[in-house]
# Entry
Amino acid sequence: MVTLPGVDPSWPAYRDVPSTAAVDPAGTTNSWHYLDNGSQLLEPPRGTLLCVHGNPTWSYLWRSVLAAGVEHGWRVIAVDQLNMGLSERTGRFRRLADRVDDLNDFVESIGLTGPVITVGHDWGGVVSLGFANRRRDLLSGVVLTNTAIHQDPDRQIPAPLRLALHPMVHRWGTRDTSAFLDVTHSLARPSLPKEVRKAFLLPYRGGARRQGIADFVADIPARPSHPSYPTLRSIAEGIRTLEVPALMLWGPEDPIFSDTYLNDLAERLPQADIHRFEGASHLVGEDRDIATPLFRWLNGARSAGAASPEAVSPEAAPPEAVSPEAASPEAASPEAAFPEAAFPDQEPAQAGTFTPLEHELIQRANGPHTDQLAVADMGADGQIERSLSWQGLEREVQTLAAALRQIGVRRGSRISLMVPPGVELTVLLYACLRIGAVIIVADAGLGRKGLSKAVRGTVPDFLIGIDLALTAAKLFNWPGRRISVATLPAAKRKLLGVQHSLAELRAASGDGTSTETDDAGLDPDGLDPDADAAILFTSGSTGPAKGVVYTHRRLAAMRDTLAQTFNIRPGDGLVAGFAPFALLGPALGTTSITPDMDVTKPKTLSAAALADAVAAIHATTVFASPAALRNILATQPELTDQHRAALAGVSLLLSAGAPVPSRLLTELLGILPGASLHTPYGMTEALPVTDVDLGLILSAEADAAAGNVVGAGNGVCVGRANSGAEITVRPLNQEGTADGDPTTDAGITGEILVHAPHVKERYHRLWMTQRESSRSGGWHRTGDVGHFDGDGRLWVEGRLPHIVTASTGVVTPVGVEQALESVDVVGLAAVVGVGPAGTQAVVAVVETIPPVKKPGLAGAELAAQARNAARSVGVELSAVLAVPSLPTDIRHNAKIDRTAVAVWAAGVLAGGRVGKL
Amino acid sequence: MRVLVTGASGMLGRVTAALLQAQGHAVRTFQRRPSGLAGVEDSLGSITDQTAIHRAVQGMDAVVHLAAKVSFAGAAADFEAINVEGTRVLLEESRAAGVRDFVFISSPSVAHVGEALVGQGATEATPALVRGNYAQTKAKAELLALDANSESFRVAAVRPHIVWGPGDTQLVERVLERARAGRLPFLDAGTALVDTTYVDNAAAAIGAALSGMDRLAGQAVVVTNGEPRPIGELIAGICRAGGVQPPRWAVPGGVARVAGSLVEFLWQRGGIESEPPMTRFLAEQLSTAHWFDQRRTRELLDWTPAVSVDEGLARLAQHYQGNQASFS
# Structure
């Protein structure tokens, strides 16, 4: 056969296989083509990967897995299904049941004994699962890439398949022309190289060669009456009892096998490790390197528990098939270079007592404070608009929990809450927690595209939202049964596909206490503390937003950290102007009030609105986002004497999410004279991990200026680890990789690692990312870079992907940016590297005051000032560019997207067009 | 050590000869006109004259070969005779005369094929790919030179990139002249990042090469200040140093390249002797990034540049102020 790109000449093989498929007359033998890397293996394989392609591809699809298999000592066999690829055209229409028989015949014929890991794509995923379900004696794992095993009979199959099946189109599109092939190949992101596309087309030249493609499409069991439906159904149900480890590698942009199908598979194989490659599509193995994660997973990195040795039965795994290395495969992998022992000892997160998040809510509802205010929303008139006592809150939570259960919300159901912070959201949140449903909190701060990706990726079962959210759900076809907050007019309700409204649910459920029959579901003591409770999202300022999963235990730990670090006591009054913490009000036992503001735009919180909220409940604690602080200062002229008097009673201000300059905090003291101003450091994955207040920041900055404390300076001082958290840094090497031994020594720059009971449980369906983030002995790798000073204070220097590797060494951006921002005309600065790692040119891109109209070189005077400023912190700038504005994240409007700046600057400084940044 | 420096009438040759002499070497220079350097021996002659070359290399321990036809215009045969043939004869005569070390001064353009160079290392010279008579003949000569490297006759190539300083006629004078005449546009927005070499640094690197032949023999290194700067900023800096108003307008690089090659063609056809206003080569040099990875260079040479770009510009300004003062 012709040589194909990526295929070793030793792989292709042909074999005559006696058939037992019902479609073949007795005594039939079919000729199979397959790729087999076995002859390249120097030692007995650790096992065999049996790869099954879908429609309309062929074994060529798996070439990267075959090549990697040789490296890792695994035999990889990729078959061409009969009537497909270079295998025989049998002239008979092979249905799903035949295809499962076929695969089994093939395996019998080559005498495969196991352990076998099935690997499938598209309809090959179904066939491979059929085989896996039947041959449990050989099976030791299943790997799936964009496929589906179940079609909800109430829902239509994806539109492109409906089209391919349409009688007017089917024969023409799949057999007579190469349309189905062309469309499939065009799904690749990025597009397939010409020679690869040619290779995929190779076995399908001419209508006669394409009959198998047409038959495969015709065999899609779109409805229960289809002949293959029972087979599909029995496989789909059968795999529920498969106990072997499973891995799912997915391209979420697939127009056919969407996240809905992934979700279905995840429910059937709950042990599965899942990684979604953001931006990848149907041909995920072409779009991304799937071989590396696949073998990393096989080499022992599977989730704890799932990789139990019992999964491989003794007779299926002859001792000689599993080499001694297989028992401790980490020894050979690069991860082994990071000895776990080098990390400080840590308690497992599961240790310790667990107090449910709603403990304080229930205590207060049933105690002497039951009639006191629990939650309230401020109106535009400066008065409380809506409120609930502790008793009222508890009753509402109970009622709504019962109502949600009645419409099918269960433990583990995922509920997307698209409701602005306030009383309504608080009730919903605690009702969901009580049921054990998983709350998905995706906010408008992700941007329209980011939000849509977040919702699709989490595949909510229910979506509860305000009108705007429901409109978006309709527009972007988000999954989940839709529940409106408001009661909508019938026409709108129909248009938006809304099935319930909260009012209707509440009415149907009555008071909730009498109709409840299944007490176990509503008993917080019955909750599994280590079950998923919530999925939050990172801001996406460094790559696509990631879903971050918290268990009940970890959320409770977040509450405890807040209470202990900031000495927040039950009964305190709290202004909740910052979403993530605001939701913890009832858990903390505080009276929480939401100020009048557009909560999706934190910077709309005005000084007067804050003061009104403080006055309404005599609040002593204020949570506000960093962006809100600027607006509070800007609007302070509107404050009355009464306002000022109320604000004087505030003793604690907490602002987290982005750094707040000490200058701004000092100004805030003019409004909040009695408050201690805290700007702790944290991230969506760990909130918060340090504590720092204005006093500490000022003394740290003084030390930096005086130069009398080792390591003081070069970054933003974020204080010391808070209650329950431990912090260490892992030093960077010359290439900017954090691979040193963890240290807290002063002045050593490295990646910041955090260990705390309130660190995230894991990332949502990002198996590789999770593994990377936690591979340092279970510590959370923050992706931030920083160092300690001689006084034990942590200084953050920037993001790991943003560090610059100049020939003189690693340059972290924040310190240089601060120096640049000390230049009068510089408003905001970004420091990035262009050129090859290790010899990058350091470039400053600045926003000036007033801003320039067009991006370009900074003027001579500014360039000289900027160079001098950078030189004062030991950095030589190659270029200084001025832009009208720097790109920042939507959520905080503060984190500069330095990656985008670097890409832009690299183009400009290579002599390209000076386009918009 | 007794060192022959060819081409000491040029800026870099002169500074190199003076530096080597100051370092305690016995320096002889070889070019058509007297070098004007005190304390060095001038051996006058043309690089196309084998007899003169033969005479010049006698008794030398080392040769630093700078003599070349550096121009954007001129007949191809002249480039060939001076740059390729001259180098071949010099190599031959040097080896025959028992010279031990030979440093060939080359240019990064020998390996440059027109695209942006970003943090580039020194790759092999490719005469077939590079554009323009100068780059092609220098590439051929560098291959000849490195090919001649052996145990007993060690050869290395040093490629300084855009050497400038007081007395520079290649970049500085050309920029100033055109800026004075109002004919110097920035190419594009002048943002292309370009490495340059202050003349004293280039000379010091050549000196370091001579003493580092143990490590360097058989190899080529690119030498720069290691301070890439946007070309617009550099040209503006040179203008200011020369007391001229920097240009304010921009010509897109693509347009400039086309104009440059047209001018180059007309110049060559017409046999016009003076330098054309802008050649395609120069346009490329000024509108795409040209900067280099200096890590290997600095390690092999055990050298770092002593004069920064800013310091160089200050010295340039001093030079022009001094000249103006002497004229008035």
Observations:
- The first strand of chain B starts at residue 2 and ends at 6.
- The mean pLDDT of chain B is 86.
- Chain B has twelve helices and 15 strands.
